[in-house]
Design a protein that fits this description.
By secondary structure, this protein is of the alpha/beta class. About 25% of the residues lie in helices and about 30% in strands. The strands form three sheets. The protein has a six-stranded mixed β-sheet, sandwiched between helices. Bound molecules: 1-O-pyrophosphono-5-O-phosphono-alpha-D-ribofuranose (PRP) and zinc ion. 1-O-pyrophosphono-5-O-phosphono-alpha-D-ribofuranose binds next to strand 9 and helix 5.
Length: about 290
């Protein structure tokens, strides 16, 4: 009997490829990732993985060739296909930006008035120009956008910037951010019940991995008369765990803190008498 498998599309190569595979691994899903493979199957989860050009993923998901996809928000908004966004994936953070030659003087978005902009994101650039009342010519190209100003094809480009090294190597500087982006999970709107079941199983794992990354486990010692103040600083998943130390009058406190206000929390713990503070990464967080 052939069991139902969910078909996932991920980027074949490029910025999101490695982190997409890594996320599957962190979800405990083993796939063999041989070079030049077009598709593969997970050995321990009902998942079939297709390796595709990121720009094509929304179309494949709309058509149902793939049931779900891991793809950049930037591509999803540009392609504007009939798909549903399920969740943000927390990796592949970047921005879609306008860049011009490093030697050019830039004062405001007016610089772009009547200029020529090369991009693979014509729709998003058009919206940006409209919002800013700029009239400019959009020159659509599908790759190597960053070389366009150097060869006289355009005055500016609009492309994805993550580390900034592509712009740097091509003598360009970033002048406007059109949108911020990260990898997201998209799905075909018409999944069947069995497919949805697998999707929810996968989503549960992804969310546990994401939560764990955003949180740290903290252990500390404190004199008992300081416990009230310390517990107030540490919300924990329910409430902190308090265990007596061998030395009387002292306790050990365990809790979970969020990465967002991490340093503030540590500082106020110290200021309130906490000692021997240990911070430990969490592998999975099931709630
Ligand atoms: C983007 C963009 C640049 C690169 C920028 O490509 O086109 O080539 O990333 O990254 P950097 O600032 O770290 O140098 P992307 O991976 O989105 O894929 P693409 O080839 O489909 O455009
Ligand atoms: Zn692409």
């Amino acid at each position: 009997m052939d069991y139902m498998k969910l078909k996932l599309a991920i980027q074949k190569s490029g910025r999101l490829h490695d982190d997409s595979i890594k996320l599957l691994k962190e979800c405990g899903i083993d796939i063999s990732n041989g070079a030049n493979k077009l598709r593969t199957e997970a050995t321990n989860f009902p998942l079939e993985v297709f390796f595709l050009r990121d720009d094509d993923i929304p179309q494949y998901v709309e058509d149902g060739v793939a049931d779900i996809g891991f793809v950049g928000e930037n591509v999803v908004y540009e392609k504007n296909k009939k798909i549903e966004i399920v969740d943000k994936l927390g990796y592949g953070r970047c921005r879609l930006s306008i860049a011009i030659g490093r030697g050019q003087k830039y004062e405001s978005v007016q610089y772009l008035q009547n200029r020529k902009i090369a991009t693979s994101y014509p729709l998003l650039v058009k919206e940006f120009l409209k919002k800013n009342n700029i009239n400019a010519e959009i020159h659509e190209i599908s790759g190597s956008v960053e070389i366009a100003p150097g060869i006289g094809l355009a005055d500016a480009i609009c492309d994805i910037v993550s580390s900034g090294s592509t712009l740097f190597m091509n003598g360009l500087k970033e002048v406007e951010t059109v949108m911020k982006s990260q990898a997201i999970l998209i799905r075909n709107p018409a999944l069947k019940e069995d497919e949805l079941k697998i999707l929810h199983k996968l989503l549960f794992r992804i969310q546990s991995v994401k939560k764990a990354k955003n949180n740290k486990y903290v252990l500390l010692n404190a004199p008992n008369d300081k416990l009230d103040a310390i517990v107030k600083i540490l919300p924990g998943m329910k409430s902190p765990t308090i265990l007596p130390l061998a030395e009387s009058g002292w306790s050990s406190v365990h809790s979970v803190i969020s990465e967002n206000d991490f340093w503030n929390v540590i500082e106020s713990l110290k200021a309130n008498g906490a000692q021997g503070i240990l911070i430990v990464p969490i592998e999975k967080m099931i709630i």
